[in-house]
Amino acid sequence: MAVDADRLTDEDEAPAIRKPNLKLWAGLTTLAFLALIPMALFYAPEDVAQGAAQRIFYIHVPSAWIGFLAFGVVFVCSIALLATSRRKWDDIAAASAEVGVIFTLAVVLTGPIWAKASWGIWWTWDPKLTAVFILLCIYLSYLALRQYVDEPLRRARFCAVLGIVGFLDIPIIVMAVSWWRGEHPSSVLVKGGMPHKDLIVLMMGNLTFTLLYITLLKTRMYVNALKRAKQEEIAA
Amino acid sequence: MNETPMTVTYEVWGYLVGAALYGTYIARLLIQMHRLERGDDVGPR
Amino acid sequence: MSWMGPATLIARKDLRIEMRTKDVVTSVGLFALLVVVATSFSFPTSGEGRQGVAAGMLWMAFLFSCLLGLGRSFALEKEEGNMEGLMSSPAPRESIYLGKMLSNLIFTGLVELAIIPIFLILLQLHPGKGITLLVLTAILGTLCIVTVGSLFAAMAVNTRTREAILPVLVIPVAVPVVIASVKATEAAFLGQSVASAQGWLILLTAYFLVFLLVSFATFPFLLEE
Lengths: 236, 45, 225
Known about the structure:
The structure holds three protein chains of three kinds. Chain B is an all-alpha fold. Chain B is 80% helix and 0% strand. Chain B is built from one helix and no strands. Helix content of chain C is 80%, strand content 0%. Chain C is mainly alpha-helical. The A-B interface holds A 50-56, 59-60, 63, 102, 105-106, 109-110, 113-114, 116-117, 212, 216, 219-220, 222-223, 226-227, 230-231, 234 and B 3-4, 6-8, 10-11, 13-15, 17-18, 21-22, 25-26, 29-30, 32-33, 36-37, 41-42, 44.
């Protein structure tokens, strides 16, 4: 692996920073939310047992899926980074990790609110929520590692290894936590028999949050690129 | 205690917390973006 | 398996140094003992669920002792500048990982074997037939921690915070190990046989195999200059 020790390889020496079409993605995301919010608040039928609080589900669940998606992106980019040493894979991974933390945090914050409304207690060690909480911890340790390694190529590689290990750990975490709480992993993962309308709103939620993820990812990468250019300018 | 208003409170809180979290992050990104585009530095984080 | 030769050489080097200085085993051993003693003051001496609490306490002691040992083991290499020497040798990179993993497994294993009897006596636990399960779980659980721990320790000593970041990296990833080990150990304290906890033992084995493979595949990248 003949790589210049001080820098990741780049396609060009100093690629010009192109501003991504954020207005387009932001616009699509906003439209999606404008559709989703009324659907979640009004169109979806009210849950008999849990009342209005059940509607939190439509932010909670899509956030969880995107939290996992973001880490999947980190995983793929990590492998690509180790294979090629190209800077762009590290850039995407770094941005995806940070954005992923936000989505995962949203799950861990809305979960207890929903739990309190439905079961009267803030934390029930529900397997799904617990697994997401551990994923959040892995994300945070990823970001910590990113903070504390100074040399760029080394930082990229270390984080890539953590990204790979963390992602492959997720199924094992889900299994362990499910069994610990006396449940079967598949019943934890798949919610069977959802009413038609609920499903539609949920799908809309997933689409909306995916768009949000893409918008945030592109923005974050753009800001990071600007930052790096600024740091280099100051250092020069 | 009347059940419905209680759960609506939680619903509202749930959406508010979600909006606050995402909103804060979006705002932070936008502020950083504008400052960097203007030429200011925003520091390592 | 061309790795085993150099790996055992590295492990034996660590063991030889350790037999002379007794650094790691005494500091880690003392640490483990003190954790056990400190937590035993808050331990319920009777009642339901004692075994579960005890299992948790034991594994907290084991987990942190293992991390302490790993951190010191790799920090020592870095301080002595051994890594460069090892890397320029014809030994395959995977052997370095395997060697460090083996030596740490042995060190931590020795500490654990000493701690377990003390623990059983202090907390008045009588595993009886569960003793096999207890030892088997200790071995498998430690194997898992050392497998990912060695990978992360090699990273940790190259960060600004050195070994201090090791727990931050390992603990979230090792949660399944802790869960499985604690549940199996609880079963052992209750006098149950290996068969009753086989699900947990299988999980530990799977964890070990998966991350052994991943470590083999990724360790060389950590050492690249």
